[in-house]
Design a protein that fits this description.
Elements: E1 3-9, E2 12-19, H1 21-46, E3 51-58, E4 61-62, E5 73-74, E6 78-85, E7 88-89, E8 93-102, E9 116-124, E10 128-130, E11 134-139, E12 145-152, E13 157-171, E14 176-192, H2 199-225
Helix pairs in contact: 1-2
């Protein structure tokens, strides 16, 4: 049975309208659809990505990649860890982390001024990594090093990236720093989208869906109460 409503204007009541219960139920059902769409988009935009990581051990002493007789050596035992998100959302910026941590006191105390020169370089095909190029850090043998590079996920797809960690040694004869690689890691960077939309647009659709849910739900409840 419908709900009858008298429509009144400035000159008095002039008509009768009938609101069927099915209309309010339809509006409430439609509001739930928008509620689900809104939650899905927001969830996709904010759900955290899992992380991949690799670890290496760099023993104290002459490096395996050093030229014969050069004596280029690690000043301490180090644990090297490289981590990155398993996937990036289109339009977001993610981070690649490099951690270098001494695991024990050096067996032979180095000279007072001795430092470990660490050189880190990252590159990705068709993606921008900041800061770009090779960066150099000077650390004491008993110090930690944390390096964070930002990846701009500007396009959807799968991209090859590389992280190169080297120790540097000063060559007095040539007046230059010679890099000796200690770790080379190939990374697969996966950038995902949601029907062509990035995280920002997905959030916008999510909030619009929740707003429409509220409008249609209140409209349906209003018609039920009349």
């Amino acid at each position: 049975m419908g709900v009858r409503a008298v429509i009144c204007g400035e000159h008095g009541c002039f008509g009768v309208a009938e609101v069927k219960p099915g209309v309010s139920k339809f509006l409430i059902g439609l509001s739930l659809v928008f509620f689900g769409i809104g939650l899905f988009h927001i969830g996709w935009a904010v759900w955290p990505s899992s992380t991949d990581a690799v670890q290496f051990t760099i023993p104290e002493g002459v490096l395996p990649g050093a030229p014969t007789g050069a004596g280029y050596a690690s000043l301490a035992d180090y644990a090297l860890s490289i981590s990155w998100p398993r996937w990036f959302r289109l339009g977001d910026s993610g981070s690649i982390h490099v951690f270098l941590t001494p695991t024990a006191e050096p067996d032979i105390q180095p000279e007072v001024q001795a430092v470990q020169i660490v050189m880190i370089e990252m590159a990705a095909k068709n993606l921008q990594i900041e800061p770009a190029g090779r960066t150099q850090y000077n650390i004491a043998p008993d110090s930690d090093l944390t390096v964070i590079r930002s990846v701009n996920a500007s396009q959807q797809g799968e991209f090859d990236a590389k992280v190169l960690v080297s120790f540097g040694f000063y060559d007095e004869a040539n007046n230059e720093v010679v890099p000796i690689p200690v770790a080379v890691v190939d990374i697969d960077i996966r950038v995902i989208d949601l029907w062509g939309a990035g995280s920002g647009l997905a959030l916008w659709f999510g909030f619009v869906g929740l707003a429409l849910w509220g409008v249609f739900f209140l409209w349906g409840r209003f018609l039920q109460a009349r």
